[in-house]
Amino acid sequence: MVVAIAGGHGKIALRLTRLLTDEGHVVRSLIRNPDHAGDVRAAGGQSLLCDLEQVDVEGVAEAIEAVDAVVFAAGAGPGSGAERKQTMDHGGAVKLIAAAQQSGVDRYLMISSMGADPDATGEDTFTVYRRAKGLADAALTGSGLDYTIIRPTRLTDEPATGRVRIGEGLERGAISRGDVAAVLAVSLGAPATIGKAFDLTSGETPIDEALAAL
Ligand SMILES: NC(=O)c1ccc[n+]([C@@H]2O[C@H](COP(=O)([O-])OP(=O)(O)OC[C@H]3O[C@@H](n4cnc5c(N)ncnc54)[C@H](OP(=O)(O)O)[C@@H]3O)[C@@H](O)[C@H]2O)c1
Q1: Tens digit of pLDDT for each residue in 103-150?
Q2: Nearest CA residue ID for atom 8, ligand 1
Q3: Which atom of ligand 1 is nearest to the CA of 84?
Q4: 146: Cβ–Cβ under 8 A, 6 or more apart, which residues?
């Protein structure tokens, strides 16, 4: 497969790049800072400059042309305010949906967030973030694309365990970015995950088994 990762220099994205390229897939990493190209290359990926907040839909569509799947791994990040939750966490994800439709890329994997809610009310930054992620998920669900929406709980940099808990309405906990990357990698090769949205936290079930039970 050829897989485009939006936000290709993110911490989950780099782990996913390594997993996919080790399996022989090709990763096209959309980054916005040319200084990040070396890290992407070191993980096995090919970088392409594409700032999701600056480039229009046509530009993003060109960047993902002829790929088999896209992964939305970008995010405004913890230091950002409400405005970038809207332009990046919502706007960037929705732009990638439109670009995928335009380019004929059917498969779209979304890194969402536990607690994402299109109806969340309030204007504090965290609520704006939860709403932005929820609206992006709703747009993807209604897009007609072959989606998988993964809603991890709090992320850590602990070593991956290969074991997770997947479901609806799970309690908050923690999960390593390595395990999130592994869930994405397995989902890409698992048609049963198409049309599914689920919470993700650390657990006891091997990843392929947890996904097969969806
Ligand atoms: N933190 C948590 O506990 C948590 C929990 C659940 C879900 N999540 C979601 O998981 C996502 C991935 O996590 P992570 O730790 O891998 O994130 P990360 O390391 O912060 O990576 C996000 C990436 O998005 C890129 N980006 C930002 N704005 C962009 C733009 N306009 N165009 C293209 N790329 C852009 C960043 O690039 P630059 O370096 O150039 O800014 C960065 O490489 C988060 O963004 C968040 O929405 C987080």
Answers
A1: 999 999 999 999 999 999 999 999 999 999 999 999 999 999 999 999
A2: 113
A3: 28
A4: 106, 107, 108, 194, 195
Q: How far apart are CA 97 and CA 106, in angstroms?
A: 10
Give the amino acid at 159.
Answer: P
129 counts as catalytic: yes
- Residue-level pLDDT at 54: 98
Question: Can you tell me the distance from the alpha carbon of 186 to that of 95, in angstroms, rounded to the nearest whole number?
Answer: 25
**Predicted pLDDT of residue 148:** 98
Q: What is the dihedral of CA 20, 58, 48, 92, to 10 degrees?
A: -70
- Cβ of 154 less than 6 Å from ligand 1: yes
Residue nearest to atom 42 of ligand 1 (CA): 10
Instruction: Output the residue whose Cα is nearest ligand 1's atom 41.
Output: 76
E-state strands within the chain: 2-6, 26-31, 46-49, 69-72, 107-111, 146-152, 154-156, 163-167, 174-176, 196-202, 205-206
Total-model pTM: 0.98
* Helix or strand (DSSP H, E) at 85: none
User: CA 48 to CA 70: how far, in whole Å?
Assistant: 14
CA distance 214 to 209: 9
Please tell me the distance between residue 142's alpha carbon and the centre of ligand 1 in angstroms. Answer: 23
